[in-house]
Amino acid sequence: MGPTEQQVRDTDPTIELLARVPVFSTLAHEDLQRVAEVAVPRRFQGQQVIFREGDKSDTCYVVREGHCRAVRHHADGRAITLAHFGPGDIFGELAMFDTETRSATVEALDRVQALAILANDMRRLMRDHPEIAAKLVIALGRRLREANDRLTRQSFQTVQSRVAGVLAELVRQAQTEGAEAQDVEVRITQADIAQLAGSSRESASRFLAVLERAGVLAQGRGRITVHDPAALARYVY
Length: 237
What we know:
Layout (H helix, E strand, L loop, with lengths): L4 H5 L3 H8 L8 H10 E6 L4 E3 L7 E7 L2 E6 L5 E7 L4 E2 L13 E4 L3 E7 H10 L1 H27 L2 H18 L7 E3 L3 H8 L3 H13 L3 E4 L2 E4 L2 H5 L4
Antiparallel strand pairs: 1-8, 2-7, 3-6, 3-8, 4-5, 4-7, 9-11, 10-11
């Protein structure tokens, strides 16, 4: 059973942040406190690489402020964006369980404040407190099921629906960070939207132009302002 709302309110910001992370959300308050004790604050500048594909996997990160993206590079120089991360998101978490090399490069999109948790510290906690390991496995299993469900839904969706879904998720993330209900700005390129939606850039660009003509959003250099999130949601099915 996870921490109660009262417990979270009574704790320091690090424990409060960890309680928001899906992988740690099932942990009891005292377990969150143990994780917080080994978490180290880290700062990264915009465009700074946090780790590269092929690096040793020895640390996971929880975003406190700012945004990052995960990218994979092809031998011919092309790159594809796999995911975006914002406050409350975790990445590199498989380092807690294995020593495989990184499967993607993660870079900061703007100034990022994060918590770094060394794999050795987390493994020691799991050895000393087996209940933590059990709860983490359950949480990771839940995330895997959610990812499979999302891939299944996307396989039946049109390009338009996938692009709208990516934008809708970015809008929800921005709103959790304090954005208003309308005119929500998200910093992302057309290329990244296309890659996250599993479509060509041309197809994503055409649909974004349709949404712009409909007054649902406005496009700028490296950013999109969604004027009417409710209207955007109607394209997701």
